[in-house]
Amino acid sequence: MLLVFQYISNCMSVLSQQSPAPIWIYFEEICKIPRLSKNEEKIRIYLRDFASKHNLESKEDEAGNILIVRYPAPGMENIKTVVLQSHMDMVGEKNADHPHDWSKDPIIPYLEYGWVTARGTTLGADDGIGIASQLAILSDKDLKAGKIECLFTVDEESGMTGAVNLKPGFFEGRILLNLDSEDEGILYIGCAGGMDSIGTLSYKQLPITLTNAIGIEISITGLRGGHSGDEIHKGLGNSVKLMTRLLKELSEQFEVSLSWFNGGNLRNAIPREAFAGIVISRSYLERVNESVKEFLSTLNNEFGDLEKDLLITTRVADLPSNVMDRETQVKLLDALDCCPHGVISWSKEMEDLVETSSNLASVKFNEGNLVKIVTTQRSSIESSKHDAAEMVRNCLNQAGAKVVHSEGYPGWKPSLKSEILAIARNSYINLFGKEPAVRAIHAGLECGLFYEKIKGIDMISFGPTIRGAHTPEEKIEIKTVQMFWDLLLEVLMNIPGKDNQIS
Asked: Are 274 and 264 spatial neighbours (Cβ–Cβ below 8 Å)?
């Protein structure tokens, strides 16, 4: 059905009219529940209440992960147990001019030409659509399937601590369907491992000595941003990199003192916006504005339509009381310029798969005269992941920054001999009359941790089509949600008995 552009500004039900209704009804409910990473208490309460309402067994572990169990339909007791898995949390990104309190405000979804998106914020389809599909399965009294365990993990987006702290005995099944992928028609059988490299740089605050000084605020906005794994290969603009480049160019032409620099927000998102405060002589104002316009023109030529909404603005601001010392300013900008961002290498075994990458995620001027620089490295090869982290460390160390690497999380090694892959592949062909693609993903999935913890676990990951994850442009394609739902049901109804195996 062709869906016309439709804004929704109230709590009227708009999603329940779409198909499949069970998923959309639950997704619309989930949109009303705040659930940022490390603040999932309200969604946990919702899930526990759901289990109680439907007379389903549930339990919660020390990490906050929840398991809800649907026992087998009559006559299906011998079917192998399947685990359906999603994560409760979401990335909370919003446009700078959009008022939204992530602790209490609901997400407002609307329909736009066959897609569902949100007003001014991330939609939370990553992984709210996974949660909704689990709830739809759990509440379907007519489903003829074996035992199903629905696992809802916490804090996937900011560290995977739910999966990290999951005990192997928390669930029974050894077939797991991860419902956290974003490309319909692709069955994922492997993922990259990841880690963070965080630098902290101290600096001196100096009084302004420049005669006839004025403050200027520079803003870079309108970039698309995106998922730092799934979309790192697309050549999207990085606001931190672009602001660094602009500040270096201005510093070469004029006497510029940096007061502050804040860009990016989340470790797993390509930064969309950056802001900086500088001090210059008033006599340079017109020339600085002209240089900024020329820089924007250069970027428009470089990006073309890829970043068609890119905007760089300047405005005269209050004169700050202090600026960064010149030596640290030069070292900071050189370090950010040096710091790798984007694809480092491509897989030699799987076509069109990024093997190793790094994301320069954010730079923040914090209290105590400290600059915090956050980066994320991903790779399907463990040694390459650490090598990329060392590249970052070397760049930041040159500026005098102290660098700390997180423990990170492992990758998930693909297996083309997987039983559940064969079931899902055959199910897809039966439903849609064509072969699904079988790939590994450059993003991190909790499957890597399950693979490391639980011997013999057999997994695949699939989902509907989501675009712009981790940005306010996040959207999910409605027709692919129906396809995702049909495939999920078909797979569940083709799980073999405990004594059988798919050849």
From this structure: yes
* 38-85: pLDDT as tens digits: 999 999 999 999 999 999 999 999 999 999 999 999 999 999 999 999
Three-class DSSP category at 75 = coil
How close are the terminal C-alpha atoms of the chain, in Å? 39
Q: Which of 159, 124, 131 shows the shortest CA–CA distance to 36?
A: 124
What whole-number distance in Å separates Cα of residue 283 and Cα of residue 214? 9
Q: At what angle do helices 478-492 and 125-138 cross, to 10 degrees?
A: 40
Contacts of 421 (CB under 8 A, 6+ apart): 187, 189, 415, 438, 460
Query: From its phi and psi, is residue 439 left (phi > 0), alpha (psi between -120 and 50) or beta?
Result: beta
Cis bond before residue 127 (omega within 30° of 0): yes
Structure tokens at 343: 């694809």
Cα torsion 238, 265, 469, 133 to 10°: value is 170
Asked whether the whole model's pTM tops 0.90, one would answer no
> Which residues on adjacent β-strands are paired with residue 374?
198, 362
Could you tell me which residues are beta bridge partners of residue 190?
A: 440
Residue 27: name the closest of 99, 105, 109, 89 by CA.
Answer: 109
Give the residue numbers marked as catalytic.
89, 156
Domains of the chain listed by start with CATH number: 21-192+411-492 (3.40.630.10), 196-405 (3.30.70.360)
What is the Cα–Cα distance from 480 to 500, expressed in whole angstroms? 31
